[in-house]
Amino acid sequence: MSRVRVLRDDGPALDLVDGDGSARAILWPGVGARLRAMHRIVLQPGARTREQRHPGDAVYTVLAGGGVVSDGGGAAQSLRTGSMFHVDAGTAYVVVAGPSGVELLGGPAPVDDALYEGL
After folding, report:
1. What's the CATH fold of domain 17-116?
2. What is the full DSSP assignment across 60-113?
3. pLDDT tens sequence across 87-110
4. Count of CB atoms within 10 A of residue 17's CB?
5. Whole-prediction pTM value?
6. Exposed, middle or buried, 60 (CB in 10 Å: 0-12/13-18/19+)?
């Protein structure tokens, strides 16, 4: 049976932010997703995500603002509104918001069940 669902960005909070900001699951196992997760992450200026590392890839787009994304080795790349970034499976990564903050939409594929433990 096929179906279409409209999901809002008021899903459960995820413990992915150091500093001022929020992270919410939109598409996740709680709504039946297994092949892709989508999170909305909002970081205020200077805030950062906690280091993440997934068994599969991750892809994000920058909806607003900017900052930098760095891998576990410290290589950093600039982000701005409209940027997208891809993270290879098993690669550690952190996003740090710039002076105007940053808003991201994306997540791992397939779903990383470890992100939802305790929900």
Report:
1. Jelly Rolls (2.60.120)
2. EEEEEEEEEEEETT--EEEEETT-EEEE-TT--EEEEEEEEEEEEEEEEES--G
3. 999 999 999 999 999 999 999 999
4. 20
5. 0.94
6. buried
